[in-house]
Amino acid sequence: MRKYPAVFLDRDGTLINDVGYINKVSKVEIYSNTISALKKLQKHFLLFIITNQSGISEGLLSEVDVKRVNAFIEKKLKSKGVTIYHTFFCPHKTEDKCICRKPHPFFVNQAISLYNLDVSKSYIIGDHPSDVECGINSGITPIYVLTGHGEKHRSELNNTVQICDSILEASDYIISKLNN
Fold it and tell me: How many domains does the chain have?
């Protein structure tokens, strides 16, 4: 049975502007280069979103708010020709010590089994060290972007991690690896 390569995407700070806890679709601002980046990637990869949403357990937004925002993002991307196969979110804060919060590979592993993914040809892109660690923990290649919180946490990375300015640069990097 054929296995599919995937790209896992962080949401806030990677695909959309990180404005804090987003409980309304009116607060969603998709980065200007997100659509073109994802269109390039989806020619070769299945696309997934994995997002930590600790605001739920902190009482700052509801699970319904997060689901509504995620559905809005998926619909907006779909209207521009981009398909997100699944959006996963963790509702817990770090102190909850759950198994689904990045850097744990819980949702990556779930997607692997649901969609028959090829780990060796898959990537994760995000603006937090936890995104990088999630990639390492799940055996997929991490790419760190400097949008969102990326610049702030850059010094926490080791120098073996690929760093890109944006989702567009990350997609170009991934595509260049396919062509080599």
Answer: 1
CA neighbor of 52 nearest in space, from 114, 143, 124, 141: 124
Which residues of the chain have a pLDDT value below 50?
Answer: none
Domain ranges, residue 30: 6-178
Answer whether residue 1 is part of any domain.
no
12 is catalytic: yes
* CATH number of domain containing 74: 3.40.50.1000
174 belongs to a structural domain: yes
Of 12, 65, 127, 131, which residue is the catalytic one?
12
pLDDT at 159: 83
Q: What is the pLDDT of residues 5-52, one digit of tens each?
A: 999 999 999 999 999 999 999 999 999 999 999 999 999 999 999 999
The two counts, helices (H) then strands (E), for the chain are 6, 6
Is 172 catalytic? The answer is no
Task: Exactly one of 10, 65, 127, 131 is catalytic; name it.
Answer: 10
Per-residue 3-state assignment (H helix, E strand, C coil) for 112-126? HHHHCECHHHCEEEE
Q: Rounded to an integer, what distance in angstroms lies between the CA atom of residue 70 and that of residue 83?
A: 13
Asked whether residue 149 is domain-assigned, the answer is yes
In contact, 1 and 116? CB cutoff 8 Å: yes
Residue 110 lies in a domain: yes
Instruction: Classify residue 144 by its DSSP letter.
Output: E
